[in-house]
Every structure is written in C-alpha cells, then in structure tokens.
Write a structure and sequence with these properties.
Chain lengths: ~280, ~100
C-alpha cells in the first residue's frame, strides 16, 4: 500500500498531466498549417517546454528500482523526445514528402525505444518493414502524384496541403483522449504486473518444447561461454516460440490477409478510369 | 519492470496515437491521412511492447507482428485506392470527394 504523501504526489501528477494536455493542444494548434500569420515558432517552443516540463514532473515520482537499467531508461527519454517531435512534424509539415521522411524518424526512434525494452527483434523488424518497405511505398505514391513545380522552379504547395481542416475541433478531441489515457496510466495501481501472465522460464521452454535444440552444436561453436547460451533463449527465439505455439491460427489468418490484399491491390491498380485526361495536367 | 517506468513508455505511445488521430482528421491530403493511421499503429505498437515487458510475456511482441501485417496490407490497398482516385480527379484533396457523403 502506498503511504498518503506518495499517493498525494501521484494524484498531483495526474492533474499536471491534464494541464500539460491543454497547453500541448494549444501549442499544436499554433503549429498547424494555415495561410497568413502562422505562429509556428511560438507553438514549437511552447510544445517543447510542455513536453520537457511534463517529463520533469513525471520523473520526480520515479521509484528507485525501475526494473530496467537506468541507462536504458535514460535513452528512452531521448528516443521518446525524437519520436514526439518527428510526429508533430509529420502532421504539421505542408509538403507530403517531408512528412513521410519525418515519419521514418518516428519509426527509427520507436525502434530505439524497443531496444531499451529488450525487444531487439521487434526493433529491427520495425526498421526493415516500416522504414524499408511501407515508407518506400508511400514515398513512391507521393512522388507519383506530386504537383509539378512552377516555371521559375519555386516549389508549389497545394491548397489542401497548406491549410488544415478543422484543426481546433480535431485537436480538442485528440487531446481529450490523450488526457484521459494519461490520467489512467499514471493513476496509482492502474498498471499492475500480473505474475500469472508471465511466460514460462527459458529453462522450462527448452525442456518442454525445444527438446531437440542442438545444445551440443552451440557448445562446440561458442566454446567457453556456451553454458550461458544453451540455457538461455534470445528475444527472437522466445517470440518465435510464442508465435508458433500460442498463435498458430493468427499466423494462418495473417497469411490469408496478405494474400487477399495482394490480389486486391492488383485488381484495384489495373482498373481502367473513364474520362482519364490523356495529357496529364502536371505537364507545364 | 516497474509500473511507473512502464507508464513513461505508454506516455509516448499515447502521444503518438493522439497525434496520429489529430493528423488523420486535419490533413486533407489522402496519402497523409493514411500515413497518420500508420502513426497510430506506431503508438499502439509502443504500448504493446511496453506491456509485454511489464508482464514478462512475449505475446505483446508477437501481436506487433500481426500489427505489421495489417499495416502492410492496409498500405498496399489504401495506396492503390488513392492512386485510382488521383487518376480520376487529378487531385489528392479528400474534400474533392465530398459528394460521397450520403
């Protein structure tokens, strides 16, 4: 049970989060793309100050024992800051190609966050699949549909990229959701580790499922420090075991979804368009 | 992993999700709207991996694989549709298709 003063501090933290959500919403509203006077710099400074202040208030309540290494937790602040700044740039930049490139930064920094959480496989899968495959598709389509620059070589920003649609209402709704989520997350006792949910230990998994794991081979190859490796599973080994022993149906369904979307994408892309302009209007 | 330390990771996930939602509603470029849904996926994925670490269970990370599958399928289909719509009207403005509202 928490002592009353600690509990009071935690509740004060929740109100600090509500205040930060409001100020953050105002900062984001200032940064939204619009014509005319655009207080983007003021919004950026206000937003950065809000984020930093929030973390200062939150980190005061951190207990001595984090359960993960302090260095990794320190890095998580850096990666979080990069991810959030890049995410703001994705939704406020008025040129789509740059938005896509900032999104690559969001992906890379969340991969960094996964590394601090000991999820190495997910971190690399994220970089390869998101940063490498999905984002390249996006950038291709953006370039396919790009507006041509005007004759003087000045870059044209189209009307629909330059002006946001209903920014005030959308930001109010989004940050209301954010405030509620953060209030719940930081309420004392709302996140409790469930000891029954813990996966079996490495030794149990090796004994029950990986009975023909070539321990001898590992020992031969690694020599002296092999005793450690033969009794411990890597992150990727644990995920593979979990995927194939606990979620075989999900795995099959994922395969079906990929096949269906492959067929669907080909059907959609091959469709003929009536009244398609023969000479594209992007030509000067 | 401590619950307050986890809440810091969930903070990042929630912010990414909220920003993606705001972006989806405010941006009028159809490609960027779908890019913002990918950002919401990112927020969810960060939370999933955090919870996986809190409970010491790898299923959270396994779900990330499924999220990636859906994201890849969504990107392929959505971008195919966007290209089709662009070929019809030569614009990426979602407002150009406002006549579709019931």
């Amino acid at each position: 049970m928490l002592c009353p003063s600690v509990e009071q501090g935690l509740f004060a933290m929740v109100y600090a989060l509500y205040t930060a959500s409001v100020i953050g919403a105002i900062a984001l509203w200032m940064m939204m793309p619009r014509r005319g006077y655009n207080p983007r710099k003021i919004g950026a400074i206000l937003g950065a100050a809000t984020l930093g202040g929030t973390w200062l208030v939150l980190s005061r309540e951190l207990p001595g024992d984090l359960g993960i290494s302090r260095v990794a937790f320190g890095y998580s602040y850096i990666f979080s800051a990069i991810a959030i700044i890049a995410a703001v740039r994705v939704i406020t930049h008025n040129r789509p190609v740059y938005s896509a490139l900032w999104f690559v930064l969001v992906v890379l920094s969340s991969a960094g966050l996964f590394l601090t959480l000991d999820a190495q496989f997910m971190a690399l899968a994220m970089v390869i699949i998101y940063g490498g495959a999905i984002l390249v598709t996006y950038v291709f389509v953006i370039m396919l549909a790009a507006q041509a620059d005007d004759p003087e070589g000045k870059q044209v920003v189209t009307e629909y990229d330059a002006v946001a649609r209903e920014p005030a209402g959308a930001i109010a709704a989004g940050f209301l959701l954010l405030a509620v989520l953060l209030g719940v997350y930081f309420q004392p006792g709302s996140l409790v580790a469930n000891p029954d949910a813990a996966a079996p230990s490495d030794a149990q998994l090796i004994a029950s499922t990986l009975t023909d794991r070539p321990a001898k081979k590992i020992e031969d190859r690694l020599g002296a420090d092999a005793t450690d490796r033969t009794q411990h599973l890597d992150n990727i080994e644990r995920i593979g075991l979990d995927l194939f022993t606990s979620h075989p149906l999900g795995l099959e369904l994922a395969g079906v979804i990929l096949l269906v979307s492959l067929v669907g994408a080909v059907v959609i892309a091959r469709q003929r368009v009536e009244n398609e302009p023969i000479v594209p209007d992007t030509q000067p | 992993m401590n619950d307050i330390a986890l809440a810091h990771y969930l903070f990042t996930g929630a912010v990414l999700f909220a920003l993606g939602m705001v972006g989806f509603v405010t941006r009028r470029n159809m490609i960027l709207m779908f890019l913002c849904t990918e950002m919401m996926f990112q927020g969810v994925v960060v939370s999933l991996v955090g919870f996986s670490r809190l409970h010491g269970n790898d299923t959270g990370q396994t779900f990330v694989i499924f999220v990636l599958t859906i994201a890849a399928a969504e990107a392929a289909l959505a971008l195919g549709l966007v290209v089709l719509l662009y070929r019809r009207k030569r614009t990426l403005d979602a407002g150009a298709w406002a006549e579709l509202n019931g």
